[in-house]
Design a protein that fits this description.
The protein is of the alpha/beta class. The chain is built from 5 helices and 3 strands. β1, α2 and β2 form a beta-alpha-beta unit. The longest helix has 16 residues. It is globular. The model has no long low-confidence stretch (mean pLDDT 92).
Length: 167
């Protein structure tokens, strides 16, 4: 893997990954990585989690110490019920729209659009702390009926307000 990163840096490449969590983007924040594929567990850190911010395990523990901070794009991010499925609270929603009822009933959230925007703003604040992160894209806008619970076009006006407020 490291030789591929070295070659990518020489060629001006970027690394991409996906980051999802559910029922909120905060799920398991500040928890470590469990044992998997015969690798020992990774301890918890206050600045990352096994679902959101997990790129920091790779960068801060492996790439940066070796001088290999290849530019990073999170090419898909957001709420996805497949993340942590079978181990997380909540129920079988898919995209953020599938968790509105859970957010209302279990978390007392009255405005799901605002709640999702708050989560994305929090995520953005994390990404902006890391100079190697170019950015992230939210999944999904106009993806058709098979992705309807991920449909994010309704949050674009609020995200625009958020971005303008960063100036």
């Amino acid at each position: 893997f490291l030789p591929a990163i070295e070659a990518g840096i020489r060629c001006g490449a970027i690394l991409t990954t996906h980051e999802y969590a559910a029922p909120t983007m905060y799920l398991w924040w500040a928890q470590g990585l469990p044992e998997s594929y015969d690798h020992p567990p990774v301890p918890a850190y206050p600045d990352r989690g096994p679902l959101i911010g997990r790129y920091r395990f790779l960068y801060r523990d492996i790439l940066i110490p070796r001088g290999l901070a290849i530019p990073l794009v999170i090419s898909e991010a957001g709420i996805d019920g497949g993340a942590g499925a079978g181990q997380r609270p909540g129920y079988g929603g898919q995209g953020w729209l599938g968790f509105r009822e859970y957010w209302s009933n279990e978390l007392g959230i009255a405005d799901p659009v605002e709640f999702y925007v708050q989560q994305l703003a929090w995520y953005d604040s994390l990404l902006r702390q890391d100079s190697y992160v170019i950015g992230a894209t939210i999944f999904n806008i106009s993806g058709g009926s098979s992705w309807e619970t991920f449909e994010a076009s309704s949050i674009v006006p609020r995200l625009t307000e958020y971005a303008r407020g960063l100036r």
